[in-house]
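Data availability (excerpt). The following record was deposited with the supplementary files.
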Amino acid sequence: MVRAAPSLTVAARGISYPSIGQIAEPGDDKKTNWDGGTVKPAPFDYVRAENVGEALSALAANAEAQVLAGGQSLIAMMNLRLAKPGCLIDINRLSDLDYIRAEGDELALGALTRHTAAATSPVVAEFCPLMTAAYGFIAHRAVRNRGTVGGNLCHADPSSENPAVAIASGATLVLNSVDGERRVAAEDFFLGLFETATGQNELLTEIRIPKAPANQGWSFQETSTRKGDFALVGIAATLDCPNGACTDARIVAVGVGERAVRLDAAETAITGAAIDDASLVAAAQAARDSVDPPSDFHADSEFRRDLVFSLTKRALCEAYGRCRKEG
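Predicted structure:
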């Protein structure tokens, strides 16, 4: 059945809404009829959750359910019928998942935080300057106004920027279901192409990011076909160099495989080294050698490897320049 908010009429499939028209039957290959015309998605049930508990109950009751947050990726995929959820659970009214706040030494982001809010937040800039830097590359204003941080992470596009930010920042993702809460490190959250560790009955409710150390440098670098497009290659980097030598590094790439990945070889190459041109080149070369990116009509594999080299070196150089030196 098609379900709306409690204040609206609840109608079964095949029955006309006063304002919607005929709903196509399950399995109907034709476009769904809507006000005498047609719409592009396959037929689906609709639930507009009024609170988190209602959303979790709907997820538990619908094995083919997907969550609608900003809808900037999901709706497009539904219109192309690349995604055919049996039930769409709309969480846009859950204001208790829309917040940005400091909690001790952690930044807490509600999953419904809009990109624009995160991009312009002084709290985000203080606790996670890497995220603020990445928003210089993320989408366009109209998309940022509607899209959400949590929805973007759950979509897990392999060229998206925020998964790299989450991994490089050591974020933890908080998942809830009717069975309780569990927490997953960002590094373990992204499993593959549009695949995450989120269970079918789970809802991402919060992202927690430890406050960046005072002496830590950061950088986000990206090359895309046009400003605001997904990255051909993107590099997120954090660097701790209290005395001119690197004591810790996190380097994460997007656009080089089926998910955002840490470049372990590059991190090993730079950690313990004095930061100079030779060590930056060594780390960038290690990054280049460790990836096997795909080829497509935007860029071939070899070009993406070259981008990994150039962007890694650039990111590490900029991050080092932002490190506070001691002594």
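Summary of structural features: The chain has twelve helices and 16 strands.
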